[in-house]
Amino acid sequence: MAKITAPSVRARKVRDGADPLVMVTAYDAPGARIASEGGADIILVGDSLAMVVLGYDDTLQVTVDDMAHHVAAVARARPDSLIVGDMPWMSFHVSPEDTVRNAATLVRAGAQAVKLEGGRKRLPMIERIVDAEIPVMGHIGLTPQSVHAMGGFKVQGRRADAARKLVQAAKALEHAGCFAIVLEGVPVRVAALVTEAVGVPTIGIGAGPHCDGQVLVYHDLLGIEDRFVPKFVRRYADVKAVSVEAVAAYAADVRAGRFPSDEESYHLSDEQAAALGLYGSPGA
Ligand code: KIV
């Protein structure tokens, strides 16, 4: 697969005959290799890192340094997929200077684009990042960094006025220079309206089938996380169950003395064993 770039993603509009975009999150080098070899166009090093890897209850806890650490791990795998680094909460809220510096930190760690949450309020920051030659992916609808302001992780755009605002926000993000827009947690028909209204691809999560692409969180897709499965997740594997079984089998083998075997152990030569006064002990 040829290396995917932000301009090549920008051109991927389904209505113009493009194949839907495939985006998946990853947070480390093995995850990036799996995503790339599986054919993902885009790897998002999402701030979902906070919840699925670091054990927090929301995404507000991760910092730019946390994100850069994981972007760098993904980049070391040299995936063919475009690497998008998520800008965490408070990394693009204070000043344009801070915002550009934080985006640059993610780029220097290996991101080829950044994503940030929010609509019209975030336009000045988006424009500054684009000005610094860093491609920006927008993210509207259910924006998890607004969990407290939204009163929980709630589907957005259910009312006509809110849906219209989402369409306006998407147009504004496109105008500000976003090369793609994530649409999260919105009704199917609202996602279709937004997708129709903009010339850049939309990438849906919990937004139905009429987007220009889809994104899932790695741990959800693979069934690594099984405590809560949102309605929009389809599980393509049950890695948690297989892993628990594997650890249980290992534990049973250790406790029964079946692991390690002779073949799984290193041995001294007879000569060196004799020099140590060791004679004929089995499996020595
Ligand atoms: O952080 C993340 O994983 C995301 C996706 C859910 C779009 O923002």
**Which ligands accompany this protein?**
3-methyl-2-oxobutanoic acid
**Structural class computed from helices and strand pairing:** alpha/beta
- What count of structural domains? 2
Strand order of the largest sheet: 1-2-3-4-5-6-7-8
The geometry reads as elongated
How many strands, what sense, and barrel or not for the largest sheet? 8 strands, parallel, barrel
Q: How is this fold's topology laid out?
A:
Layout: H1 6-10, E1 21-25, H2 29-37, E2 42-45, H3 49-52, H4 64-76, E3 82-86, H5 96-109, E4 113-115, H6 123-131, E5 136-141, H7 147-150, H8 160-176, E6 180-184, H9 188-197, E7 202-205, E8 213-216, H10 218-221, H11 239-255, H12 270-275
Parallel strand pairs: 1-2, 1-8, 2-3, 3-4, 4-5, 5-6, 6-7, 7-8
Helix pairs in contact: 2-4, 4-5, 5-6, 8-9
Bound molecules: 3-methyl-2-oxobutanoic acid.
